[in-house]
Write a structure and sequence with these properties.
single chain, alpha+beta, two-stranded antiparallel ribbon, 7 helices, elongated
Length: 171
Amino acid sequence: SSMALDEQKVGLDEYLSDAPVWVGDWTEYPISCWAEDYGFNHGAVTLGEAIMHSCNPPFVHLALRLGIDKFYDYINLMGMNERTGIDLPAESVGLVHQDPNVVDMATLAIGEQSTITGIRLAQLYAALGNGGNMMTPHIADTLLDNDGNVVRQFKPEIQRRVFSAESTRLV
């Protein structure tokens, strides 16, 4: 959502179709909303309604508007293929497509076909609350020795801006 808002690919009052979407060469079945399983769809929805109802097709449409290159520029900016920098050992990295096609992009736009660590997910949600700034996560703000003396103080550290403050406020 923030990607499309930042790139001016969607308006807040614009309606997006919730009808099933056929993507690329993938002909097995379309990407549809969970409501299809219950015999209905939400119809045309605004971005806010798409988020509220967790409708997949509107997010596929937004990804298609962005295009593969711009979409994956944001995926890289969000650090989905790198460690967060948290002060813990052995952090793993999620799996993201290395040579994506339009189907890969569409499924990632709805949160499938990739993996993400819990700390990365928390870091990205926090970026929405931090005006688009992705912060380095820490497990504590102060490290003390056995006598209660401060050994190290962790200060908030912005890694980079991922989204504009305006798009995160809107989302």
